[in-house]
Design goal:
Layout (H helix, E strand, L loop, with lengths): L1 H29 L9 H43 L5 H33 L5 H17 L1 H15 L8 E4 L2 E8 L3 E6 L4 E5 L6 E3 L5 E10 L4 H17 L12 E9 L2 E10 L4 H19 L9
Antiparallel strand pairs: 1-2, 1-5, 2-3, 3-4, 6-8, 7-8
Helix pairs in contact: 1-2, 2-3, 6-7
Length: about 300
């Protein structure tokens, strides 16, 4: 049954091409461009030559597009295998590049295939290309913002500033990067809203998940507390996380006590941080806060607990 279905599909495509040619001939005639007169005796001859060529072009374009897609997927898998499967940096970069390459190949092959099919339909493509060039030049002058966005997007991708799956802050808005296109970057913020930024309007971009991240926690204690005792409690809480099998894979370095960063309202603010794998600082910070709170309460460190 499959060969019969393929033959029927081919016949349907050929009929569609013939109908398209007829429509084009009528349109050209109405605008004053003379087309050769239809001769039913030449239909079969045209079908066996130009028609078959058009089908071959379409089939070839389909095969090239699919083969390129498979090659890009294999390249992505190869990059993932070459670098550790747990290397999120390479996974995000491979996903970004594969999506852009697939789009470029599809558009390029489709454009060339359309031009070749038009030639088989006895339509001169030179005026089309010339008009497209002139129109593209005019559009380029009239759409400077679009050109700026595309150029900015090209260099953004070339310099590997951000990738799909990264946590980034763009123009003051933080979120997860969902799409990277030549013209726009799509970001989903913490409220679940989709933020779309034209590449040319990006004035500040901070990648919060490249190679590593910091889980930062600030704790405040009263002036009367012994800072060395507080720091010792913080180190013990950090060491307990480092030894915990559930959190150890997410932590890249021992806990770091930055120090007292402010004195205000009778409280001293101590900043501590963990160096973590990308995209996991918030989870690590939340767990560290939980353990610090329990430790401070257990040791009576104010203001988390009173000495009464």
């Amino acid at each position: 049954m499959k060969p019969i279905r393929y033959v029927l599909n081919a016949v349907g495509i050929l009929a569609l091409l013939l109908a398209l040619r007829a429509v084009i001939a009528v349109v050209l005639k109405r605008i004053g461009i003379q087309e050769p007169q239809w001769d039913p005796r030449l239909v079969l001859n045209w079908s066996l030559t130009h028609g078959i060529n058009a089908l071959a072009i379409l089939l070839g374009a389909f095969i090239v597009t699919r083969a390129a897609g498979l090659a890009i997927n294999q390249l992505q898998l190869g990059l993932t295998r070459r670098h550790a499967a747990t290397d999120l940096e390479w996974q995000r970069r491979a996903t970004t590049l594969s999506g852009i390459l697939s789009s470029l190949v599809t558009v390029s092959v489709g454009f060339v295939a359309v031009l070749m099919v038009l030639r088989e339909l006895s339509i001169d493509v030179v005026p089309i290309l010339t008009g497209a060039g002139i129109a593209g030049l005019a559009i380029g002058f009239g759409a400077q913002n679009l050109v700026r966005d595309i150029i900015s997007g090209f260099f953004l991708i070339l310099e590997d500033q951000v990738r799909i799956g990264d946590l980034a802050r763009i123009n003051g808005i933080a979120g997860l990067v969902e799409q990277i296109n030549l013209r726009t970057i799509v970001l989903r913020d913490g409220d679940g809203a989709v933020q779309v930024f034209p590449n040319g309007t990006i004035t500040a971009l901070a990648n919060l998940s490249k190679q590593f991240a910091y889980a930062i926690v600030e704790v405040r204690v009263t002036f009367g507390e012994n800072i060395d005792r507080v720091n010792g409690t913080i180190r013990e809480a950090g060491a307990s996380m480092e030894q915990d099998a559930a959190w150890k894979p997410l932590i890249l370095a021992p806990i770091e006590i930055v120090g007292v960063v402010s004195l205000a309202d009778g409280l001293a603010t101590i900043r501590v941080r963990f160096k973590t794998v990308p995209l996991k600082p918030h989870q690590v910070a939340n767990e560290l806060r939980r353990r610090l709170l329990a430790a401070f309460i257990g040791r009576g460190i104010r203001p988390y607990a009173d000495h009464r």
